[in-house]
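Note to self: keep these together.
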Amino acid sequence: MSLARMSRATLLAAFLGALLLATPVTARRSLFEVAHDHDEHERCECVAKEEGWKIDCDTTTPITTAQTYLTTAANDCKKKDASPTCCTNYHIVQSHHDHCTHEQVPASLETTLHDYENFYDDCEVARQFDADLLKCPTVDCSTAKVDLATVTDDMQTNNCNTTCSSATCKLYFQKVLMAHDSCEEDELPSAIEKTLHAYEESCEDQFCNSVTEAFTLDDGTCPAHSGAAAQRALSLAAIVAAIFAVVLVGA
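Structure:
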């Protein structure tokens, strides 16, 4: 078909298709996905930097505000593919729960996390050192899949969810915590994370340090996110498309 015989709409569609193909894949992906879509195990401080909030264990108001938004039924956050605002508030809750000491966050945060964790991808953050706690027992990550293969069943058998005061429950819980915090995900039994979350309330007196000293989260090393490139590409596409549409209308 000749250019003269093509309709203006067809020409515009063809032009936008060519522009889309010329857009880098990472930017093109972000044009159509939710801006707050994050890969699982992206560092929480990087998610926070991108979304405009801070991980601050000493200020509880942002944590409780995020928790309130997340648990308000009208916000419809208890589902897969929830809104970007739900995702942001979940990450605020999850990152503070995982990073801060047990005394620094509301006790209800554990229940909230358990209720919502299946609907979101967690970001990754190390647990902060607590001077009041002892060091966790050593875990060999290279053999953790075998060493901890039965720990979930063992904790259930020993009724650690009812009382975690026994030496057996204490050891099991602390090994689960240490393994969760120090080993790679593919080095662990698949149930470790759920086991940790399931028992952290009953075993709250058995927390231990999985790191040896206090540290500061560093968002200065966060990689550039594709969102900025996508926004530039989208802006360029909009401008050029508008110009092209005006040209067509005036032709």
